[in-house]
Design goal:
Structural class: mainly alpha
Number of helices: 5
Protein name: DUF7701 domain-containing protein
Pfam family, one: DUF7701
Largest sheet: none
Organism: Dactylosporangium roseum
Number of strands: 0
Number of domains: 1
Radius of gyration: 14 Å
Order of helices and strands: HHHHH
Strand content: under 5%
InterPro entries: DUF7701 (IPR056118)
Length: 90
């Protein structure tokens, strides 16, 4: 077990309904941003995990736009989610 898996296991005790892939992404957030992790970053990790194999059509379009250099692509993914903020979590 590596250090990311150890953190993911600790998070799994608190978040017992999360899949292992998502817990590993959350563990990476712990390492990279720690107490400064935002709700936006947690949501982005969830999106990366939830749509890993079959992206939602709006996400797929935004990814194509980002790949083509579209500056507004990241915000296109969030259009239907007005409640997202940049507040720190925890």
């Amino acid at each position: 077990m590596n250090y990311i898996d150890r953190i993911a296991a600790e998070l799994g005790v608190l978040l017992d309904d999360c899949k292992p892939d998502l817990l590993r992404l959350y563990a990476l957030l712990v390492l990279v941003t720690g107490v400064n992790t935002t709700e936006e970053a947690v949501h982005d990790a969830w999106i990366a995990s939830a749509y890993r194999d079959q992206p939602e059509p709006s996400v797929a379009g935004a990814v194509r736009g980002a790949h083509a250099g579209g500056a507004g692509a990241r915000h296109a993914v969030r259009r239907g989610d007005p409640g997202r903020g940049r507040r720190a979590v925890g």
